[in-house]
Amino acid sequence: xxxxxxxxxxxxxxxxxxxxxxxADLLDAARAAAQAAGQHAWKNRDRRSEVVATFAHDVKxxxxxxxxxxxxxxxxxxxxxxxxxxxxxxxxxxxxxxxTCEWIIDPIxxxxxxxxxxxxxxxxxxxxxxxxxxxxxxxAPALDECYTATDDGPAECNGRxxxxxxxxxxxxxxxxxxxxxxIDPRLPPFEIFRTLSASVQKARIMxxxxxxxxxxxxxQADAYFENGIYIWDIAAAGLIVERxxxxxxxxxxxxxGRLRHIASNGQIHEELRNLIxxxxxxxxx
Length: 285
Prior knowledge:
This protein is an alpha+beta fold.
């Protein structure tokens, strides 16, 4: 299987609009960069055993670094003076006004899945300026899914408009999440997961945060929670959830770049937040 991106071809941004790009211009660049980076990883998937570094529960591949470089190259061609921030970033533009656009890249979200040959991984690219996300793309090559959104347009997948679910009770909700082992030393391992899984219809762990959030946007899941996620995991997909009619909220900055984040269809948002906060208050987290 070698899927081709389903979205329309992209075009290079007019240099005259580069200093004040529209959301549509930014989305076009994000889509081009995500598809180029994602296709680089997909076409070279036989090299997924080329490991640069290993960690207790994670891995960094050479393709992580290469895909980041591919994405940055596409963006630099269009917006050479924009900031770039990524999980595998090779640097940022010098002397940039803080108010300018900043690109946030995760070249392979779900690297462990990818390294084992699972199709659940993606490239996530978002851009923000003026304190808000302007555009976001989550591209999953192995699934042939390209999720997109701008701050003034709808959330879509392969051109099809997305809408969150209408589930209105946590007890009947499918919630995407991750394990909370070792993220916060004040919390017993898996404490939040145990409480969450006992309170919802089903809790699912897929190992790819950006796609988890996109499932919420598509109405295939009703909420998402993770303790210890990073901005590049949620930047694009959080915007996609919001533009699909849901809510995406960072509850806390845990330090070292880690965040406590929830997202939902909106109807069960308060119930989910209250559940998480109750666990934290009981355990001192």
